[in-house]
Fold this sequence. Notes:
The protein is an alpha+beta fold. It has three domains: 28-227, Heat Shock Protein 90, CATH 3.30.565; 233-400, Ribosomal Protein S5, domain 2, CATH 3.30.230.10; 415-541 and 625-657, Rossmann fold (3-Layer(aba) Sandwich).
Amino acid sequence: MAKENGKTNGGSAEEYNAKSINVLKGLEAVRKRPAMYIGDIGARGLHHLINEVVDNSIDEALAGYNDRVVVTIHKDQSVTVEDRGRGIPVDMHPEEKKSALEVVMTVLHAGGKFDKNSYKVSGGLHGVGVSVVNALSEWLIVEVRRDGKIYTQEYRRGIPKYSVKQTGTYKSENNGTKITFMPDKEIFKTTKFHFDTVAERLRELAYLNKEVTMTLKDEADGQEEVYKFKGGLIDFVKYLDENRSPIHKPVYIEGEKDNTPVEIAFEYSDSYSENVHSYVNNINTIEGGTHLVGFRTALTRTFNNYAYKNGLIKDNNKISLTGDDFKEGLTAVISVKVMEPQFEGQTKTKLGNGEVKSAVETLVGEKLSEFLEENSSIAKKIIDKCMRAAEAREAARKARELVRRKNALDTMHLPGKLADCSINDPEHCEIYIVEGDSAGGSAKMGRDRRFQAILPIKGKILNVEKAKINKILENIEIQAMISAIGAGIGEEFDHEKARYGKIILMTDADVDGSHIRTLLLTFLYRHMKELITSGKVYIAQPPLYKIKKGKEEHYAFDEEERDKILKRFRAGKDEKILTVEEIEETEGGEQQVKGIVISRYKGLGEMNPEQLWSTTMNPETRTVLQVNVESAAAADKVFETLMGDAVEPRRAFIEKHAKYAKLDI
């Protein structure tokens, strides 16, 4: 957790002058503040380097010049990205007086993305991508194949070793760019790439760009995957729904309105959750935007018009279909190409172009009306499902009113077991949702009452992946969370009304604790998703071990940290250190090594209030993991696999990931 240094400068005001102003030249600013450009310097930021380079290759595909991208993770954890695009220009830049290749690789905000003659649409809109990768790499080599000649330049931490030079020739028409880089260990906390993380993005891009073949290789273990989906978005929807039971074949809509190409695929399944993913120029707009609004509006209007026209809904029907009713069980992928996209905020997660709403709404209305007229049996199945959703919505409304009358959802009457904090400013408040009354009691006594609230959760909450909304609202533990957080639920939810700036999940470091944490995350992701996308959800990291020698005590969060502490204590190397499981089997869960006592915590309840505060709750010393959704499609897939009805996919997932100690979303 970041801490602010409150120290003030005791010098005079005259000391603050022109000499105090530092000008960072070239790529120095990137190395000085890398998180400003790639999000963070952990695993997420590391993998972002690959995405930046791959996005350039995909932009070449959008322009119609590339049909292949190959990503190779080498044994030393350097990475090569190679495409068959036009190749970065190498001729002399008229203003910079150096090769255009060197300008692209070493100057921020330099690239062809701002020239609409080169790229009509692109994902890398800010032009900082490949130069940032160069700045944050220990070394980087770029090779351009263009006009029958091969050009090369090498860099060390963003600085060219030599000018761009010709290093060979080739006879084929195989133009393209090949970039190999080594992430800088001075910058990143980890330089270990994960095959699955890279694969998820490449697979997503292959679905969105059906003309491109994406290949991923890992030389360390020989893994190789090739992604090529001729069905494009139809295959994407089938992939997202492979653990669900669709009630009809996918509906596919493609066309162009007002110079905006639109491509959409959707289908309904027998599930209760909605699974909609929207993209602009291959960028995943997690927060949606005008293209998503246009789709929803057209979907609701077109289905309602068809239903009334064909007598599937009577005018005197007590229940009418709303936009919410068309969400249950819907899986959809919306992809639009926009020449001048306007994104709300710097994170590119919500599209703001008003004209795109009109384009999508008009096109979907026209194409969907035609489809329904030609496929009446599918239309009837979908409307029947939506009618059942409407009945559940009405039941949920009555359940809400009943619960409110009991004051459980009324934020003016907070749940009795909530130990609230005294500060009212959400920005400075946090709530711990704690597994069990025992741990909840320790947390209440050990917390800082000014800004930390505690809500104990008893047992395992309802699996919301398998329940309708009215059943969800009847669950006592879920009622308590809704009331404590105070921002509503579902369509009523507004993360800005949340009573706390941080929602921290604190469960035991065992199988039951992991299950409870997954249930809680599933609920938050499905019904309070904005808490996650706005960065307000965290996972507490209680220690696994206490190492004590005499009066000196240290805590370790994993076996690697435990062994480092033991090394400092100069424990004898001749005595075997037990694993987590072996220590748990010993009497009292302890092991002694030459006067050093190693204790394994089985649960939060084993720690007294002081220990819980110092290890897990003190902002100055604790470690918490922020939950983020880098790929919403991947997150949805994980939740459906773990919490859905299909058994075989869950077994395969567990067998594959059992070796990992934490869940990355």
